[in-house]
Design brief:
The chain folds into 2 domains: about 190 residues, 3-Layer(aba) Sandwich (Rossmann fold), CATH 3.40.50.2000; about 170 residues, Glycogen Phosphorylase B (Rossmann fold), CATH 3.40.50.2000. About 45% of the residues lie in helices and about 15% in strands. An 8-stranded mixed sheet has the order 3-4-2-1-5-6-7-8, with helices on both faces. It is globular.
Length: about 375
């Protein structure tokens, strides 16, 4: 029997790396897989995954009040054996699907109550009340689901502590994509690839290269025009090769040119306990890593001896780490080789894929 699986998202792009490229494409090896999205780009079939678009509604309130209803209607129409939800606003849909006798999994990409505590536009009392309320509601609802997939062991353990069936399926890289890269290690070039928010450490990164003879490739998109203006005015920006948003081929080209990648995110609750996907992509490509000195990051860096951890708020410490790698290219190359070995043997999507398969088989046959 070929089981039918439907993934649902009201907020993520249809080709989201975790949802589509990893989970849906992997599950399509064994099941009939659908993906419901809300981006206004229409229906299509790609990589054996049937994508259904319910249309786009502007604003968060529009998503919550209108999009979720359309997502639920399409989910019921598809009549699948398992529904796999990817956004907190879809949890009520999961409860309705459970009442219809369906198997439901929630994918916890992040720790939602801790995310609320990081919202700078809320005062402390409001954040505490909202975070507490969301935490209680989340546990109440997810106890009624069949399983929770956590994006990290920390998220998994949070739900296990509440007697909720949970497994961690980590965002480790797909081996075939970046493992073949062989960086040249001939020029003092470093890179940052990712979103360009203040909390991603962009200011400190650009400040760190002011006194260094180095090229910094930045690939990503600014979402705050005033922040972009501020960063472009920094002295270090003259040494930046800004490439805006790049596709996967562009990512490969940047990693090929670089000796090290930066992932010096600020110590916000949502970053401290979440795996930075870019760190594993840097490791997969075989370049050195300069990462925030968080316990979760430090464990990986120290285990593989693939780089150095620094205070992400200290541009001087970042500069020192960059200079150390530039002044010892052979040592940095050795870091990259050790990183690549760890990715090939332990931290790759092939390992995580098997966890996902095992969970689905268990949920289907309970």
């Amino acid at each position: 029997m070929s089981y039918s699986v439907t993934h649902l998202t009201s907020a993520h792009p249809r080709y989201d790396t975790r949802i589509f490229i990893k989970e849906c494409c992997s599950l399509a090896k064994k099941y009939r897989v659908n993906l419901i999205v809300a981006d206004g780009l229409g229906d299509e079939t790609k990589e054996r995954v049937s994508i259904y678009d319910v249309g786009i509604d502007r604003g968060r309130l529009g998503r919550i009040l209108k999009t979720t209803k359309k997502v639920l209607a399409k989910a019921i129409e598809l009549d699948s054996d398992i529904y796999h939800l990817h956004d907190p606003e879809l949890i009520p849909i999961g409860l309705k699907l459970k009442k219809l006798g369906k198997k439901v999994i929630f994918d916890a990409h992040e720790d939602l109550p801790k995310q609320v505590m990081a919202k700078h536009y809320l005062n402390n009392l409001t954040k505490k009340i909202l975070s507490f309320t969301i935490a209680k509601a989340e546990i109440f609802a997810l106890k009624r689901f069949d399983a929770v997939v956590g994006a990290t062991p920390i998220i998994r353990d949070k739900f296990l502590d509440h007697k909720i069936k949970s497994v961690d399926v980590n965002n480790f890289p797909i081996l075939d994509e970046l493992i073949a890269i062989e960086p040249s290690f001939t020029t003092p070039t470093i890179c940052y690839i990712g979103l360009l928010y203040e909390t991603r450490g962009i200011r400190e990164i650009v400040q760190s290269i002011e006194g260094l003879d180095v090229k910094l490739i930045i690939a990503g998109k600014f979402f705050d025009s005033s922040f972009e203006t501020e960063i472009r005015a920094l002295k270090g920006w003259e040494k930046v090769d800004f490439r805006d948003f790049v596709d996967r081929e562009g990512v490969k080209n940047i990693l090929q040119e670089s000796i090290a990648g930066l992932v010096t995110l600020h110590p916000t609750p949502s970053y401290i306990e979440a795996y930075p996907v870019k760190m594993f992509e840097y490791m997969s490509a075989g370049i050195g890593v300069i990462a925030s000195d968080f316990p979760l990051y430090r464990d990986f860096v120290e285990e593989s001896r693939c780089g150095v951890c620094v205070n992400p708020l200290d541009s001087g410490a970042i500069a020192k780490a960059i200079a150390s790698m530039m002044n010892n290219l052979e040592g940095t190359r050795a870091m990259g080789l050790r990183a690549k070995e760890m990715i090939e043997t332990k931290y790759n999507w092939g390992v995580e894929e098997q966890k996902l398969f095992a969970l689905y088989e268990e949920v289907l046959h309970v």
